[in-house]
Amino acid sequence: MTKRAPKQRRPRASDGILPGVLGLAALVVAGLALALGGVLPAPPAPPEVVDGCRATPQFVAAASPDVVLATDGREMGLALRSASNATPAYQHPTWDDAGYLGAIAYDQAGNVYAAPTPRLSLADNPLAGAATIWRADTVTGDLRPFVTLSGAASVRNPFGVLGMFYACGLDTLYAGSVLGSTPSAERGGVIAIRLPDGGQTALLDGTDVMGVLVVRQGTGYTLYAGLARRPAIIALSLDAQGRATGPPAPLIDLAAAGATPQERARKLRLVGGELVADLVPFNFSLQANATDAPQIRRATWAWDAAAGAWALHQAAARP
After folding, report:
1. pTM for this one?
2. Could you give the domains of the chain?
């Protein structure tokens, strides 16, 4: 039986598409490299801490060496507690004037800034006080109102400032706020408060924010904001003077690090080159906030220099 010679396949127009596309892409990359002087853009610089100048308040340094200043205990307001709980907590007469407190921050002189955060009863934290940030003098410890932010709390949302951070080089206090928000409308944001005069600039608005952190990157800064309505962190680029240079962008999906749908980044910080987030449940409810033993879980990320991004190092332990 005679075998037929195989048919010759006619060339098709699509045969040259993939090589053509790859060749075009190569030309584009090469052209970009030439336009940049033969060097492709470098990945973003690794984030660096900017709060190393924070000082211990003088009234703390003058106390026993093992005491810590805290707002998360049973006491209303600020309290100096022994790390070993060997002695009763100390409170200055003014430290409960603002009711229960939450976020605190220190500046380079050791002054302490604190934000009222209600727990179970609005009798202890009246709605009118939610927009005020207080300052305890580094020498005397006197706690006095410092600045009042725009907006007002309500019975539906009694919270105001939920996170604070001090940036040394900018001498600025950053406040993460949910002030004035409702179940259907986000009216919070991040407010930059210039020290020592208290001048305010809204860096981010229309976004409810909990934890805040500023890092140095290259010649500018980046503001990280832990969102208060979903488990995520966004980033806002700042110039050398701390001014926003564009819109915020997604940074980290906390769900990928083990966060539950109800958990938020209450506190953000850089420790040993790693990004650390303390995760807590939050849903704008006083009952959920009424505890002197917060359910904190922790997740960490390491900087991937090649990718120029944070890579998950350790997910939050299972609840």
Report:
1. 0.85
2. 58-314 (2.120.10.30)
